Please model this.
Amino acid sequence: MAAPAGGRALWRGTLGFGLIQIPIVLLPAEQTHELAFHELDKRDMSRIGYERISKSTGKPVEWKDVVKGYEIEKGRFVVLDPEDFKKANVAATQSIDILDFVEKDAIPPTYFERPYYVLPDRRGEKAYAVLHEALGKKGYVAIGLVVIRTRQHLCAVVPLGGGLVLELLRFAHELRPAQKASPAAKASPKEVALAEQLIEGMASAWDPKKYRDSYSEDLLAAIRQKDEKGHVRPSGVPAARTVKLTDLSELLRKSLAVTKKGARHGRPTRRAKAAA
Model:
């Protein structure tokens, strides 16, 4: 598994545990497909630009004159250039030191933020393969710290398929305390048993390819409709329905019945939700 050409790597450095240092590169694992919208002047449909205006002179400032500054006290700034951010802690910007190994299931989902692919850099393939196989066999992930774009993140290095993925994690102080349901909301054994049956009836193997961003597709269709006809007709409007919380057991039973019926006819069980 070779590393990409220099320009594509988001981050290049080493991944270290014990006395081992593995040369690696990070590549973004996400790709966005958001529809791009522009802000326009409704009078003539011209695009609205954004200017950098000096608050003291009121005049535009060109990019070449923009610098980053930290207000160390009221009205007094310390200006930093890109190299200064690295010099603050050179080792931190060039290496990911593994601090702990923990079971992945021990990390709550709320801590996971963003994935990156980890590839071995030059002469790092052997040690990379050793770490990947050892993590997979033990069922652990590696916890460390990484600096990306002037900010340090907690991170987890996770074995996935034939390689490693780095997951940026949130620090504990970045999360609000978990909110609990009202103590008055008690589930009866009967309701839980019905819910378990419904869950089991809708269970399937994880296949991310079967899920799609249907809203973006519908939104693009609405844009085309307005371009052609001048208006957008509502679609996907849910049928009016009244749900009584006291009927929870009955709703679970009906959902279960629809799920079983859908399975007999070979229909996706997720339709049970819409039919309940």
The first strand starts at residue 11 and ends at 17.
